[in-house]
Amino acid sequence: MTKPHILYVEDDEINGFVVQSMLRSYCTVDIATNPAEAMSAVGSVAYPLILMDINLGEDEMDGVELTRRIRALPGYHSVPIFAVTAFAMPGDEERFLSEGFDRYFPKPVQKEDLLAGLQQYLGG
Fold this sequence. Notes:
The protein is an alpha/beta fold and 124 residues long. 40% of the residues lie in helices and 18% in strands. The chain has helices spanning 13-23, 35-44, 63-71, 92-98, 111-122; strands at residues 5-9, 28-32, 50-52, 81-85, 103-106.
């Protein structure tokens, strides 16, 4: 069986590496470190699921706006996009779900929780 191939948009190299390592046995994870890389990646690969950081560092576009732009692309309207974020205050989960994310995972993300979310949408 071929492993799913997903995209993680994350500006922090260490966080990207941690999640990539965490999910290695289940799926292949491409990392985009900024919105331009993410838009390029979704333009060339049909990802079945995207993990999205919200605060993308110095970039003017955050993960919420990037999610809106990705969802506007052909073939990406219904692709699951999970918020993976340091925003973990009361009300944040509801806010991100109302912004169009399919799931919400506060950092530091727990492997079991993330795998359960991926399996819910991708099977396995």
